[in-house]
Specification:
single chain, alpha/beta, 4 helices
């Protein structure tokens, strides 16, 4: 059973597409629908297109009308509302494309939305530079030797210890206003990260789906 969903949102258009056969559900927000059309993504693979449709226009409304889900709530972003729909459809593992680039307030907003769902969803963002996601207090990633690894506190994390990185941390604190852990790199195939308190966002150098 394919237990993973793929969601396209309205940042920079992706430079690649993963194999759609890996996913049990594929969706996009209305803004992302534009670049999917322009990049000749097989739109018939989409299970739904959601949003307030303030950024959508065109004849494709007629062709894919049955796949549109109108979500007019202005107190939530289209990304947030799309995640709620995916949850209703029974998925907890979600790959995100189009989450970065574009207007940077959108990028920061996307991180904030993902943070709000981190305890109930496994959300991973992918772009042309890296994959990034919030990690639990005990985390191991494999097959990363020579890849860039950045640790970003959100907004703070305590007693961080790492193995497998060029610059190791041992019971150290990171804080967005004073010390962050970006631009490190893996010297081993396996990297472990543990921490005691706070929330940590990890970026891993480009890895295609």
């Amino acid at each position: 059973m394919k237990d993973k969903a793929l969601l396209f949102i309205n940042g920079d258009a992706p430079k690649f597409f993963p194999d759609p056969e890996k996913y049990g559900l594929i969706a996009c927000t209305d803004g992302a629908f534009h670049y999917l059309k322009n990049l000749d993504f097989p739109l018939e693979k989409l299970d739904f297109i959601s949003g307030d449709f303030d950024s959508h226009s065109g004849t494709d409304e007629n062709i894919y009308h049955e796949k549109f889900i109108y979500t007019p709530d202005q107190d939530k972003t289209d990304f947030h509302k799309a995640l709620e729909i995916i949850i209703e459809k029974g998925f907890k593992n979600i790959d995100i494309l189009g989450g970065s680039g574009g207007e940077q307030d959108h990028f920061l907003g996307n991180l904030t939305v993902a943070f709000g769902f981190k305890d109930i969803l496994n959300i991973k963002f992918y772009d042309e530079f890296s994959e990034y996601y919030f990690v639990p207090k005990n985390f191991i990633v494999k097959d990363v030797k020579d890849k860039m690894i950045s640790l970003y506190p959100f907004p703070s994390v305590e007693n961080v210890t790492t193995t497998g990185l060029n610059w190791l941390l041992t019971n150290e604190n990171l804080n967005i206003t004073s010390r962050i852990g970006t631009r490190n790199f893996a010297v081993e195939d396996e990297v472990s990260i543990t921490y005691e308190k706070g929330d940590l966002l990890v970026f891993i150098g480009r890895n295609y789906l």
